[in-house]
């Protein structure tokens, strides 16, 4: 049975009844619930098997709503919101006292963004409350970039996936927090560092869990296939080393010939980093279904979205 639907009024009714709907965004699908409903928010954590110490992102329809979510907006946060919203950038700001502790894991900051997807925006405009929406995958596994991915994970657990097609960006939002007035990157994502630095000048990255206690979601192992996965600079060499196995390959721009390769995906023949990012998770989902002994992934050039893709591949390849 499929729970896919394009009916926005049905999604509104389910969310008004304090239940969950998976929603499309430009980055990945989110598992959404009313931020003010304890029942809905608890069910997000239970459905994902997500630990309560990991706070959620609040999704709002317009920048006017921001003042009801955050108690203070640094000048550079306002600037970033003006330039990048709606879009794949999340701001972590001091929270308004009306935001429930379960959303922020008891922290005094709240993460917030305006998603850039027409159906998500229409849905938010039909609701009297913002939506908390973590990626719609079980904790630690590969994020969903199609409605079908969510259906495969959660068809027994939720009533509906609002089907908005394949996500155009394909990697989660970039998360930015503030140390006083200065922005800091907590999570690399679909808005590149270069784009951000063009707006606010040079910016520090603090995305390791030991140096970024402010971003508890930055676990070493995440986005991970269940098949053993490695990240390499030299694909042919790695394939040779593992040639006694049934190998899956995730290549940047050209395919390899080798008898040991049972399944192979090329992310972008023209090395277009946005095209590669948008296909990344679907490729990992497909590779994970092929009954392989090992998945070998190729490291991207370390700039622009390549940096964000490498971050996800790095976390996908940390052993259990
Ligand atoms: O693109 C996205 O951001 C997607 C779509 C659905 O919007 N959402 C998403 O949510 O990736 P999630 O829950 O998978 O990741 C949220 C991240 C976690 O790493 C969490 O720790 C961090 O945001 N976060 C949330 N609130 C925070 C806070 N107050 N301070 C620091 N980090 C926070
Ligand atoms: Mg996630």
Automatic annotation (TrEMBL):
Gene3D superfamilies hit by this protein: DHBP synthase, Threonylcarbamoyl-AMP synthase, C-terminal domain
Record-level Gene Ontology MF annotations: L-threonylcarbamoyladenylate synthase
Catalytically driven reaction(s): L-threonine + hydrogencarbonate + ATP = L-threonylcarbamoyladenylate + diphosphate + H2O
Pfam families to which the protein is assigned, alphabetical: Sua5_C, Sua5_yciO_yrdC
Subcellular location: Cytoplasm
Keyword terms: ATP-binding, Cytoplasm, Nucleotide-binding, Nucleotidyltransferase, Transferase, tRNA processing
Residue ranges constituting the YrdC-like domain according to the UniProt record: 5-191
EC identifiers of the protein: 2.7.7.87
Record's function text: Required for the formation of a threonylcarbamoyl group on adenosine at position 37 (t(6)A37) in tRNAs that read codons beginning with adenine.
Family affiliation: Belongs to the SUA5 family.
Protein name: Threonylcarbamoyl-AMP synthase
